[in-house]
């Protein structure tokens, strides 16, 4: 997932960012509400983890502005104040979850996974990119009228790339989304499975291709792009 972390305490922002990055997420951090809003307006995020007490713009207001921009972006609010009024205010602003500081990172990671599961449940049953149709329920891929035989891992790599079509997906993000970790695993395994998938797509005559952004990651594009 692409996640925005906003906290006016640099050490806290760095701690949360490192933890989420180690879980395979693509993380951007900011230390004030105005800078964070600029990041949101520049490119979309799937989740924002926001401290309530921020300079320039409160976490409540930032949450509201994020939801106005894209209501599908999930928001987890962080606060040191365990007051019912604050929790109500945050939820009324559109927050999906609320955590009280201090907290264990393991709990935050679990709540992020819960957000991902909710997104998966509300996701469409299939995805279409050019002539390629990805059946998310049956784990099948079709190109035109023909089935494209892929392994489960190849399917998951294609799904992640298709979710961000024409965007570059980093190797770390693919490791996190497909293999569930970035630790104790050779990142070259991503290149290996992308190579398998690329050959199958090319042989099928599909009008989509996987493009390598050297040193960064991969993107799925249509031939006309």
TrEMBL record:
Q: What is its main location?
A: cytoplasm
**4-aspartylphosphate (modified residue): where?**
51
- Pfam families listed in its UniProt record: Response_reg, Trans_reg_C
Instruction: Name the SUPFAM superfamilies on file.
Output: CheY-like
Q: GO: which molecular function terms?
A: phosphorelay response regulator activity; transcription cis-regulatory region binding
Q: Which InterPro entries match?
A: CheY-like_superfamily (IPR011006), OmpR/PhoB-type_DNA-bd (IPR001867), Sig_transdc_resp-reg_receiver (IPR001789), WalR-like (IPR039420), WH-like_DNA-bd_sf (IPR036388)
The listed locations are: Cytoplasm
Any GO CC annotation of this UniProt entry: cytosol
Q: Which residues bind DNA?
A: 124-222
Q: Which UniProt keywords apply?
A: DNA-binding, Phosphoprotein, Transcription, Transcription regulation, Two-component regulatory system
**Domain OmpR/PhoB-type span(s) in chain numbering:** 124-222
* UniProt KW Transcription regulation keyword: yes
User: Any idea where the Response regulatory domain is?
Assistant: 2-116
User: What processes in GO biological process is this protein linked to?
Assistant: regulation of DNA-templated transcription
* Protein name per Swiss-Prot or TrEMBL: Response regulator transcription factor
């Amino acid at each position: 997932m692409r996640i925005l972390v906003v906290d006016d305490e640099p050490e806290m922002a760095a701690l949360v960012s490192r933890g989420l990055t180690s879980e395979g997420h693509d993380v951007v951090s900011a230390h004030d509400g105005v800078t964070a809003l600029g990041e949101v307006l520049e490119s979309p995020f799937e989740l924002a983890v926001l401290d309530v007490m921020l300079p320039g713009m409160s976490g409540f207001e930032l949450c509201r502005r994020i939801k106005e921009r894209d209501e599908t972006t999930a928001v987890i609010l962080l606060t040191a104040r365990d007051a019912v009024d604050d929790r109500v205010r945050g939820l009324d602003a559109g927050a999906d979850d609320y955590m009280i500081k201090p907290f264990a990172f393991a709990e935050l990671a679990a709540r992020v996974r819960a957000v991902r599961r909710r997104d998966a449940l509300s996701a469409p049953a299939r995805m279409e990119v050019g002539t390629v149709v990805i059946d998310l329920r049956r784990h099948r891929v079709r190109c035109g009228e023909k089935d494209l035989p892929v392994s489960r891992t190849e399917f998951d790599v294609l799904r992640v790339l298709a979710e961000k079509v024409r965007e570059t997906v980093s190797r770390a993000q693919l490791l996190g989304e497909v293999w569930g970790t970035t630790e104790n695993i050779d990142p070259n395994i991503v290149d290996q499975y992308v190579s398998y998938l690329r050959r199958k797509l090319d042989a099928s005559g599909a009008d989509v291709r996987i493009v390598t952004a050297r040193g960064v990651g991969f993107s799925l594009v249509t031939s006309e792009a």
